[in-house]
Structures are given as C-alpha cells and as structure tokens.
Amino acid sequence: MLKKLALSTLVLTSALFASNEVNVYSHRHYDTDKQLFKMFEEKTGIKVNVVKAKASALIKRIESEGKKSPADVLITVDAAGLYAAKSKDLLQSINSNYLTTNISENLRDKDNQWFALTKRSRVVVHKIGSDVQNQLKTYEDLADPKFKGQIMVRSSNNEYNQSLLAAVIAHHGEEYALTWAKGVVANMAKEPKGNDRYQVKAVANGIGSIAIANTYYIGKMVDNKDKSQRDAVSKMKILFPKFENGGTHINVSGAGVAKYSPNKENAIKFIEFLASKDAQKLFAVGNYEYPVLKGVESSKLVSSWGEFKDDTISINTLGENNKAAVKIFDKAGWK
Ligand code: FE
To answer: Fewer CB within 10 A of the end CB, N or C, for the chain?
Structure first.
C-alpha cells in the first residue's frame, strides 16, 4: 500500500514539476552513486529520485507501468540488462552529440538506446605467490581438471557470471560452453554462495585457490572500514585471464532513457552528466571502475593491478547470448 502511494506521488510530482526532476531506476548498488546524484542536483537544480532494485525487477516494473511509467532513466550493472530492456521496447534512442562523440561505438547500443558509463572486468583473484599465476592464463583454463576443488565463484543467477558465459558462447559456441561450464562446476571448491567479495575472502582464508570477481570489488575491499576485508585482500593479487582468441572479459554498467520518460530532457542531461569528466573521475576513484570517457584515467590503485587488452567480442553479444547462457548454466548444474 505504502509502495503504491509512493509511486502515485512520484507520478503526480513528475506531472507537476516536469522540468525539475529525473526518476532513475537503478540496479547500481555503490555509495559513489549517491555522491554523483548529489553533484548533478547541485549543478542543475534537477532533483534525482532513485528507485533501487535488480535490473530484472526494474524492467518488469517499467513494463507493468506501461505508458504511465514515471521512469526516466534505467541504469544497470550489466550489458545484458540494457539489451533486455531494449528488446522489450522499453527504451528510446538518445539524441546526444556529447554521448555519441565521446562514448566509443563498442560501448553503446547501435541505435543509441543505451550508453555504457563504466567498464568492469571479470578476473581471477589468487593469493600472492600462489602457483595459480603460472598455471592459469585463459578463461578456458578455468575448466581444466588440474584445478579440481580450487574455484570459488558465485551462483549462476548472477548477471556477471551469465555475461561471462555469454562471452564463452561468443568465442566457442554453445556446445563448448556447456563443456566449459561443467568443467568449472567440477572444479568448484564449494557450492556457489555469496557475492564476489565472499569468494575473494574464502580464497584468502584458504578455501580453494581461485576466486572469480569483478575488478572494482578488489578496490572496495582495499578501501573498506571492515578490517577483515582489508586483511583478506592484502593477501591477494589480480590475474587478468584472456580468451584463447581474444582479450580479458569486459562488462559495462550503463544507462538508457525509458520509452515513456516524462522528463526526457532531464534524463539525457543526467546521462550526459554521468559521462562527463567529473563524474567519470568519481566512478574511477570512488568505485574503482574503468571510465569510458577518453582522457579520464583509472585510479592509481586500479592502474597498479596492471594492463590488459579488452576482449574483442561486441558488448551487445553479452545480451544476445544471455538466454542461452542461463540454459547452459542449468544444464551444467551450476547452482
Ligand atoms: Fe557489482
């Protein structure tokens, strides 16, 4: 009831003060965002209203709200979420010179229905001095029986894993992807549970030797109030695997404008702001993500992890192969 009330208030407010706010449906769950939204509010006087939930729930909500949806901007933490929103005809093309000039083609939808705001890489994290660094070079290696009982990775309902498997499909086809997923399952140290940081902590504490995690979580563990996270990550090192015929797996967090956005101008301003130099710097320094704007550097900590070459497949493929990836995870018994 309360939820319903809040929503109708939102609709009403957006109708009355159309030019003074932007309604953001966001799957991002990082503190930096609060700071960014505040910066935008101070700069433009446009109030940012945020609804936070998983992309799948936000997409369902926009669908059921239909033409009356108050959503202006959809932000996801994964390319497949944006792809799904576009496929369901929930987004619209964004007419912005700034965005098309500054965000490279591989990091946006071909009809400009969404733009990446940050890049993140899904990598291997191992103990400093561990033999893993000599034994593992590629994502394909993760399925090698020599790593039996060594891998800590979260569950298959997580979009970061789904996109990684989507990339495996893009490189090798579905048949190989199933063999690969079965191989990784056979190599798991434990049944999947917890988030990316949980996997890193487990390996730091001697459970398995390979944790699979997104890069920025390592930064967030270093820069953490919780001593147990700092202690765990101080023992660890990042290894950037690559695909046999490609580079290191890249995913994006990005934004699109909702099809029935009541504050379209504000929505575009908001996304342009998130792609501006100041905002990109904060994504880099505050959340340890890779900026998408040319000329903005990664944080010192992130740079210290080393360089890698982005995978060669198109980011859109992650969305195209998502359904197949989910099915394959199921068949492989990846919990
Ligand atoms: Fe995340």
So the answer is: N
